[in-house]
What does this fold into?
Amino acid sequence: MLHGVRRAPVPVYLLETSHPVRGGRGRELRPGRLESAVDDLYRELILDAYKNPRNRGRLEEPDASYEDENPLCGDVIRMDLEIRNGVIEAAKFSGHGCAISQASADLILERVKGQPVEVVLSLSREDVFEELGVESLTVSRVKCAMLPLKVLKAAAYGMQPSLKPG
Amino acid sequence: MLHGVRRAPVPVYLLETSHPVRGGRGRELRPGRLESAVDDLYRELILDAYKNPRNRGRLEEPDASYEDENPLCGDVIRMDLEIRNGVIEAAKFSGHGCAISQASADLILERVKGQPVEVVLSLSREDVFEELGVESLTVSRVKCAMLPLKVLKAAAYGMQPSLKPG
Amino acid sequence: MTASLGRPVAAHLDTTTVREDFPILRRLAHGHRLVYLDSAATSQKPRQVLDALRSYYENSNANVHRGVYLLAEEATELYEAARVRVARFIGASSAEEVIFTRNATEAINLVAYTWGQETIGSGDTIAVSALEHHSNFVPWQVLAANRSAQVDVVDLTSEGTLDLDCLDRMLMEKRVRLVAIAGISNVMGTINPLSDIVDLAHGHGAMVLVDAAQMAPHMTMDVRRLDADFVAFTGHKMLAPMGIGVLWAREQLLQSMPPFLFGGEMIRRVTERETTWNDLPWKFEAGTPNVEGAIGLASAIDYLEQIGMKQIRAHEKALVAYALHRLADIPGASILGPRDPALRGGVIAFTVGDIHPHDLASILDRRHGVCIRAGHHCAQPLHERLGLSASARASFYLYNDFEDVDVLCDAIQTAKAVMG
Amino acid sequence: MTASLGRPVAAHLDTTTVREDFPILRRLAHGHRLVYLDSAATSQKPRQVLDALRSYYENSNANVHRGVYLLAEEATELYEAARVRVARFIGASSAEEVIFTRNATEAINLVAYTWGQETIGSGDTIAVSALEHHSNFVPWQVLAANRSAQVDVVDLTSEGTLDLDCLDRMLMEKRVRLVAIAGISNVMGTINPLSDIVDLAHGHGAMVLVDAAQMAPHMTMDVRRLDADFVAFTGHKMLAPMGIGVLWAREQLLQSMPPFLFGGEMIRRVTERETTWNDLPWKFEAGTPNVEGAIGLASAIDYLEQIGMKQIRAHEKALVAYALHRLADIPGASILGPRDPALRGGVIAFTVGDIHPHDLASILDRRHGVCIRAGHHCAQPLHERLGLSASARASFYLYNDFEDVDVLCDAIQTAKAVMG
Ligand SMILES: Cc1ncc(COP(=O)(O)O)c(C=O)c1O
Ligand SMILES: Cc1ncc(COP(=O)(O)O)c(C=O)c1O
Ligand code: FES
Ligand code: FES
It folds into this structure.
């Protein structure tokens, strides 16, 4: 059941940040929409997960591994999973990246540890935002935040070849 | 001494309308600089030369002929010259074009008939404007006005191979 | 709608209000009200578009993509939102299918340099129509010469419409890989029967490129319903600033094509040994894009859709019907292209007796402030077929009114008197 | 000019007055004064340039060339006068040598697709420096791959300047046809010794293309004194709007090159059998040009020359000297490229400890309104050589002042505290 380290054929983050065309007039840019008077990004929660990650490292004999890159910056995240009876028994992330990506990786693994693999498949962008404690992210930083989930999903899909992304 | 109909290797009109770079800050476009409240172009002088040309036609046995095209519109002017003892004894133009080019051809031939060939070489844009009775012309129409002189000069140069354009 | 009944009133849109949005229409030309009848060459710009440009530069200007600071995020959002806006306007399946280029010409060259170089081979045929603009003719002529292929020209009927039988025969007899065809002719005004052409071509395995430079500004266009393979158009003819154009193609086709220009933005990873390409649409957008142009195009589309593409089309049809009718009353005036306004866009090319078109245009301008174009309108092969070295052309858009047509006809009468 | 002596005053130009011309500098970012330090990516625009654009569209907009009515004549005059303005700015012999492109990237691709395709053959070498922007690297890599030629990378010295011995060896040992080199690096800031490079290259029969994207905006440039063969630059980095760039080459060389894009404007005569090309510069300008962009560039040049290119260069040198000095006081900050401000333009790339450059940029923006760029700055091969996946970059222009440097340094201290 070991799946080697591969590259994702379809970058999941792209699906998530691609521009919807149908339905509605699209987002209008209101001046100030992207502004925040206080920095809601580099705060306790994210900084703590970044500086003191609980899930950083590698597994010796993972049942699934996956690695992918954020093409905007070249940073790479790898995820190792240990699965028993369909449950994520252990999970570690490695690689390098900014605080947002590293914190996102750590927090998302904290959430799925001990959960059935299927849980991973149901996780959305909103779940990542919730874990990071942010309401929204700008275009460039959303890719940092979503990279770990993308890699995690790819690892989980690898476990369940019948559950390919739609 | 008969020079066949050829195309000019260097379009003379281009030299004349090319954009000088050195010296001065170049023309500033003052609003209205190109405007004229009364039409000073389609007036008696030009219209009469256009409608009743005195020098339109072909010479049976020209000593020099030349033909060239205005690339902006595709119109063609041909000039036939008969030269005796260095003097232009007879001259005719043919081809097709707008009123400006036709009038210019007619008026410029009227001016050089009976003159030494060298006179042709000294003619300038200002002389053409003078013949047409205009003070200036816009970029596109200046090419119409200058085409006949360009062709005439090329025919004259053909007569005096040592006097190539600089 | 006859001269004896007087000038018709604008029923489809309120030209008085529209004209107020176009500052240039307030200027005088040689002391006359400006009558701008050259929108087929380039359109004028409403203040809404000019405001959008200024607002971009005064508030959000930055280089797009890869920047993480506020201005860069705003500029990127505006740029990519403009792409979404264009995609929705033309009915694209996704914004990834919308490639921003400099103009229609570059969009067509992009296809020739990428898909064309890879696909066209020795003995292949590229079919173009006899009424193509040079921009949809010369790139294919050059490509064919480079690839030992040939360009075949589809004839016109005596009415000035495309001879579909000729195309059919060509598809039957030759190995046609591409049919390159204008949606609307910029000279004859002919609206080509695109769905028939696409069906014919696809039935013989040929691809179709639609040069929509004269179509996108003037009528509703749905690229999925159209079912062509490539669609190119240009912003400056549809109220947008100069320097922005669009190539549309289906995502799968774009994926399969090699990139065109190389440099910043269009790469995924560059090493000294090799380079990989970025995802769509950026794979085809090398270097700093014209963000201003894209924002201006989106703003122009907002303006057009607020007026309504259907209303614009109906208005132009009424103008053309009236103009055809009035021109028919001028002895010596003869019109190129179909007589039926339903078969043509807002373009009328014509000649008046043996008055040289450049003289005509000069006199119309100097004596009446009327702007028309004279020449071959970048369609020399068509003029050669028609036995003309030049023609005069008046073209209409949403800001033209029936008075403009009247002034045009009066001005032609003046020209006849001057030159007569 | 030390911290203990306090902040220096602007001696070379009056930044207070200059800043008033740039409307965007009045906006706040996250509640802070906007400190724009990303001019190497794109510059901000003065109101004089924005006014010129608006005035063009409100008074003279028309398609250029071939039109005989007033607006078309005005637009054509403005467009060609802009070309003359650019020619004079760079010291070209004639306006015919100035080709308008979309940006520097397109200008370089134009050379690769025309001169390159005709000249580069099997076994030839194209020399590029290790600090090239992707736009002056990938086109040559692709061309070399297509022509069975190779790209060789000229090393850097430990100071971050070009290793001329390495170039010399390369020219001696290989059949180098082209040396493609940036005037100023957009990462290291290095000002390359262009006249030495040109002499070396020409001595071995190689041509030289100068990517002047970072040079033209910041210092006096005389293409005839430079004596390179091709010079490319881009308007949006020098106060002009997006969508306009320039390729310069000597008339004779341009004459000998085949055209690049095909379509309207660039033709002399089109028939169904063959096509001939227009004269320079139009041979290389297919389709409707970006008239607005050219006018904007001319207006930007007017603005720059009114301030004075020498003053601008001196001002930036003083800013860089001060910034280098202040950054040296920040523990953990390390600077890429030469230490000597005389050897570098207004660009400083750096890293701070192991703070990820994107985090640095985000915090600078959110906490202090400081706009810097993070990433590889379209120079991945250089970063690979430096063993970095990314760096942070601050870049200066005429509207930056010493206070901007102070805010930058304060902001870096904040980032250290946040991430520490
Ligand atoms: C050194 C250098 N060359 C080329 C470019 C490309 O300029 P553009 O994106 O305007 O084509 C840039 C800027 O991005 C640059 O800094
Ligand atoms: C039918 C047609 N195709 C192509 C073009 C070329 O458009 P552009 O010059 O903007 O590339 C034009 C307009 O000039 C046109 O009318
Ligand atoms: S900057 Fe690379 S993952 Fe965030
Ligand atoms: S328009 Fe052809 S010569 Fe005047």
